[in-house]
């Protein structure tokens, strides 16, 4: 079984880019995706509290898991190492499309897994630190913080496709399916359809 796992941290991010990248990778490597797992949750949330946990538990020897980046699995080094170790023990092959690596039951995969886990954690800490510093500096300068109404990228994309979404909704296409097609959460799609 070949499984693709897609994750974004917020509803403001899009799953579509990850989906397209995985489809290109699968086609290039002659793989057929059997199942897609998508979720909108921070990578710092434990995998035990996400769909990822159930997915990893069901995977068996010879299965393949595809992600766009190792950081899609988690943002903490310890958890990435745990997930990679679990895949290696089960003989599940893990592809990371952006980095171009294959993680399987060999020493190179174990070393790379450690390195990627460490990099993901350092990157998350640096981003968090830079964001806090920038917000503090802007606040000190007297800049009002917050998003202007109507600038949410997800809502902007939905507004641009408003006619099509309304037509498909009236034809009976489910809210979940429309959300999947647009790469937004079901909650965002539902809110949009109810207010437009």
TrEMBL record:
PANTHER family annotated for this entry?
A: DNA-INVERTASE FROM LAMBDOID PROPHAGE, SITE-SPECIFIC RECOMBINASE RESOLVASE FAMILY
Which Gene3D superfamilies does its entry note? Resolvase, N-terminal catalytic domain
User: Keyword Manganese, does the record have it?
Assistant: no
* Name of this chain's protein: Resolvase/invertase-type recombinase catalytic domain-containing protein
Active site (UniProt): 9 (o-(5'-phospho-dna)-serine intermediate)
Task: Provide the GO MF annotations for this entry.
Answer: DNA binding; DNA strand exchange activity
The biological process GO terms on file are:
DNA integration
Check the record and name the PROSITE patterns matching this protein.
RECOMBINASES_1, RECOMBINASES_3
Q: Record's InterPro entries?
A: Recombinase_CS, Resolv_N, Resolvase-like_N_sf, SSR_resolvase
> Cross-referenced SUPFAM superfamilies, in alphabetical order?
Resolvase-like
On whether Cytoplasm is a keyword of this UniProt record, the answer is no
Where do the Resolvase/invertase-type recombinase catalytic domain residues begin and end? 1-142
Keywords, sorted A to Z: DNA integration, DNA recombination, DNA-binding
């Amino acid at each position: 079984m070949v499984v693709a796992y897609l994750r974004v941290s917020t509803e403001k991010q899009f799953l579509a880019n990850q989906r397209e990248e995985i489809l290109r990778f699968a086609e290039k490597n002659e793989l057929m995706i059997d199942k897609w797992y998508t979720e909108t949750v921070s990578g710092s949330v434990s995998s035990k509290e996400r769909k990822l946990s159930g997915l990893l538990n069901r995977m068996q020897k010879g299965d393949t898991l595809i992600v766009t980046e190792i950081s899609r699995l988690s943002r903490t080094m310890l958890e990435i190492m745990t997930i990679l170790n679990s895949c290696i023990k089960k003989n599940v092959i893990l592809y990371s499309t952006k980095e171009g690596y294959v993680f399987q039951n060999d020493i190179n995969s174990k070393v790379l897994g450690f390195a990627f886990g460490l990099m993901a954690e350092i990157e998350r800490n640096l981003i968090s630190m830079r964001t806090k510093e920038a917000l503090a500096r802007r606040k000190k300068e007297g800049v009002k913080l917050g998003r202007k109404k109507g600038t949410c990228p997800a809502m902007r994309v939905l507004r641009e496709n408003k006619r099509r979404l309304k037509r498909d909704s009236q034809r009976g296409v489910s809210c979940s399916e429309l959300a999947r097609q647009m790469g937004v959460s079901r909650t965002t799609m539902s809110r949009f359809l109810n207010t437009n």
